[in-house]
Amino acid sequence: MMEFITETYKELKRMNVRQFLGQALQLGLIVTSALMIWKSLMLVTGSESPVVVVLSGSMEPGFYRGDILFLNMGKAPIRTGEVVVFNLDGRDIPIVHRVIKVHERRNGTHIDVLTKGDNNFGDDRALYNKGQDWLHQHHIMGRAVGFLPKVGMVTIIMNDYPYLKYALIGVLGLLVLTNKDA
């Protein structure tokens, strides 16, 4: 009888290790799949960030804080009235604003863009880097082609309260690792 209990314990221990490794592999596949989807979206849209969250009220009433924007760079030149997302040199957070002026140079091969938030009084020259009066093509991350209202508030809350973000990631990882369906 003691031998049977010992063998059963060893078998359960082997099964637990196999189950844990299977679940760890499943977690790795989930993360890898998410990265593959993101990279695929980057290729399809031509944008380094195909999805962004509006972080301020500068575009109200067009877009509100927490709206998710879907971006596409496209081949067509940028035109006045389009909403673009741009990133300035030396800054981490992109800005969502509307194009108010486009200046084409050298037969349309180079463009200069001036932007403004719909809810702002003046243009964005005060936001641009010192000595910069226009945005250039390399600053533009993409143009807005669609949006989901308020869905991005989750992202804003996670950034405002980083411990909540880490707790949520930990709980989700723990759920995947302790899942009995593997």
From TrEMBL:
Keywords on record: Hydrolase, Membrane, Protease, Signal-anchor, Transmembrane, Transmembrane helix
GO CC terms: signal peptidase complex
Localization in the cell: Endoplasmic reticulum membrane
Residue ranges crossing the lipid bilayer per the database entry: 20-38
Pfam families associated with the record: Peptidase_S24 (PF00717)
Catalyzed reactions: Cleavage of hydrophobic, N-terminal signal or leader sequences from secreted and periplasmic proteins
GO biological process, one term: signal peptide processing
InterPro entries: LexA/Signal_pep-like_sf, Peptidase_S24_S26A/B/C, Peptidase_S26, Peptidase_S26B
Domain of life: Eukaryota
Positions of the Peptidase S24/S26A/S26B/S26C domain: 37-143
Gene Ontology molecular-function annotations: peptidase activity; serine-type endopeptidase activity; signal peptidase activity
Membrane topology: Single-pass type II membrane protein
Task of the protein: Catalytic component of the signal peptidase complex (SPC) which catalyzes the cleavage of N-terminal signal sequences from nascent proteins as they are translocated into the lumen of the endoplasmic reticulum. Specifically cleaves N-terminal signal peptides that contain a hydrophobic alpha-helix (h-region) shorter than 18-20 amino acids.
Family: Belongs to the peptidase S26B family.
Name recorded for this polypeptide: Signal peptidase complex catalytic subunit SEC11
Originating organism: Chlamydomonas reinhardtii
